[in-house]
């Protein structure tokens, strides 16, 4: 490797701003069958719903962790995007092994909502309890 080569880098997590990080972590852990690996309460002077949490794949599996960070001024994004509305600048894509309809039913049971707009037949756009979109696909 040349001395001027860039350092090796890899993405390890995605962070999502939310008004309720610990509840959001519980949602994603239930949805994905993962585990909550961090569950920190509010700091001094912060509201009771503040804090930070993390969800990780089951032991022995690799993958990105999902970090849930308290966002004091959170406004739920609008999907699909509309001018002048809060933008969902990113979303999670969740691969489904098997039956997409069963995955949607599971997501709904965990507290997700089905988005009104469904632009693809083999993808379901869902909204988490805070309104963040995520896609289930086969």
From TrEMBL:
Region called Disordered, residue ranges: 37-57
PROSITE patterns noted in UniProt: VOC (PS51819)
GO molecular function: dioxygenase activity; lyase activity
Stored Gene3D superfamilies: 2,3-Dihydroxybiphenyl 1,2-Dioxygenase, domain 1
Keywords, alphabetical: Dioxygenase, Lyase, Oxidoreductase
Ranges of residues in domain VOC: 10-138
PANTHER family: CONSERVED PROTEIN (PTHR35908:SF1), HYPOTHETICAL FUSION PROTEIN (PTHR35908)
Protein name: Catechol 2,3-dioxygenase-like lactoylglutathione lyase family enzyme
Organism name: Cellulomonas oligotrophica
């Amino acid at each position: 490797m040349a001395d001027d080569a860039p350092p090796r880098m890899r993405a390890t997590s995605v962070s999502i701003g939310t008004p309720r990080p610990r509840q959001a972590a519980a949602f994603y852990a239930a949805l994905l069958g993962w585990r909550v690996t961090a569950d920190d309460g509010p700091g001094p002077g912060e509201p009771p719903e503040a804090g930070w949490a993390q969800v990780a794949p089951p032991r022995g599996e690799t993958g990105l962790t999902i970090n849930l960070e308290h966002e004091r001024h959170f406004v739920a994004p609008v999907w699909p995007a509309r001018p002048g509305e809060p933008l969902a600048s990113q979303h999670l894509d969740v691969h489904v092994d098997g039956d997409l309809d069963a995955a949607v039913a599971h997501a709904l049971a965990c507290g997700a909502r089905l988005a009104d707009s469904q632009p693809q037949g083999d993808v379901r756009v869902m909204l988490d309890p805070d309104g963040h979109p995520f896609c289930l696909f086969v």
